[in-house]
Amino acid sequence: MTRNEKRQSSSPSYEFISSDDEPATVAISPSEKELLTVVVTLPDEKLKLLKPQEKTSQKKRKLGPNPLKRQKISESMASSSKKSIENQEDSESSYYVEEEEIDEAKVNNMVRIFVNTFKRNPDLWANFKNVVEEQIITDDKSGNNITSKKDKDFLMELKCLFLRSRNPSTSTLQQIIENIWQGYIINSPESTAYISKAHRYFDSFRNDLNKNMIILARQFIKDKDIEINDTLDKDEIINYVDEAIVKKTLSLFLKAIHSSSWNNTEFVKTLKRFVRHCLYFHVQHIINGEDKTRYSIDVLEKVKSDNVNNITKDLPVHSLSGLDLANNVFL
C-alpha cells in the first residue's frame, strides 16, 4: 500500500448536523482539491461541525529499529552510523510533512461536506443563509469583532422595507441609516458603506423571493395541470394564493414584522395581492417556454417595478425592533 493510499484510508470522516436536517456522513477523498472558504459566525445550536470520529485502532509508525536489535549492532557498522542518522532525520522530516498534508486533507473534507450537504438539500441552504444574515459582525473602534445591535436593527428594518418596496431609492435608505446611526452625515464614508450594504441585502432579498416564487409557480402548474402555451387564468391564481402561502413565500421578511400586523385585514389583503402578481409573472414565464434570456425582462424587472411597488408602498410594517423606521419612511 502506497503512502497516499495509507493516508486516504486513515482520513477521518465528518458529520454535518443542522437543526433542520438529519446527520449526513460524507466520505471525501483528500486528493480532490476543490477549496471553498466560508467564514461565518453561527450559534452552536444552529450549526455544529463535529470532531473526526475516533479510530478504534491506530497503526504504529516504524521510525527505526527495535531497541533490542539496536544493541546487537556490531562495531563494524560504526562507519555507517552517520549515514543512518541522516536517514532517520529524513524519515522524521517526511513524517512531519505527511502530518501537514493530513491536516490539509481535513480542511478539504470539511469544506466539501458543507458544499455537498447544501447541494443535496436546497431548503437547508436557504435556512443557512437566513442564519448568516442574522449574524452580522462589525468592527468596533478597538478593532475587535462584535455583534452590533444597531446592525441587527438595520437588517430588520430593511426586511420590513422590502415588503413595501423591492427597489427603494438611496434617499430612502439614507433616512433609515441616519435614524439608526445618529450623527452620520449624508455621503460620508460611513453612510456610503451602509448604503452599499443595503443594496447588497436587497439583491439577496429579491433573489430569495424569486426562488420561492419559482417553487410556488411550479407547484401551481402541477396542481392545475397546466401545460406549455396554455392560457393562464388569473382567477385561478387569485383563488390559489391564501394566507398560508403568503406566510411561506415571504417568511424571511415576515420574521421582522410584529405579530400584531396580522390583525390588520388590509395588511393580509395587500400581501396576497403582491404574491399573486409575482406568481403570475413566474407562471406566465414558465408556460411561455421558460426562455432564460427573457427571465430578466419577464420576471425580475416586473417584480421590482413601480407598478408592483405601488401595491405595497402604503403597507403598515411594524418591526420587532420597535423602531418602525421602514414604516415611517416616505416612498
Quick tags:
mainly alpha, two-stranded antiparallel ribbon, disordered N terminus, 57% helix, 331 residues, 3-stranded antiparallel β-sheet, 5% strand
Short description:
The protein contains 14 helices and five strands. It is mostly helical.
Write up what this structure looks like.
The chain is mostly helical and 331 residues long. The chain folds into two domains: 3-53 and 63-129, no CATH class; 148-328, no CATH class. The chain has 14 helices and five strands. The strands form two sheets. The chain has a three-stranded antiparallel sheet with strand order 2-1-3. It has a two-stranded antiparallel ribbon with strand order 4-5. It is globular, with a radius of gyration of 29 Å. The N and C termini lie far apart (70 Å). Residues 47-57 have a biased composition (Basic and acidic residues). Residues 1-25, 47-97 are annotated as: Disordered. Residues 87-97 have a biased composition (Acidic residues).
User: Terminal Cα separation, in Å?
Assistant: 70 Å
Low-pLDDT residue intervals, each spanning 5 or more residues: 2-86, 88-101, 134-146
Strand content: 5-15%
Helix count from the secondary structure assignment: 14
Overall structural class, as computed from helix and strand content, comes to mainly alpha
Helix content: 55-70%
Shape descriptor reads: globular
Mean pLDDT: 73
What letter string, H or E per element, gives the SSE order?
A: HEEEHHHEEHHHHHHHHHH
State the strand order across the main sheet. Answer: 2-1-3
Q: Rg to the nearest angstrom?
A: 29 Å
The biggest beta sheet, please? 3 strands, antiparallel
Number of domains: 2
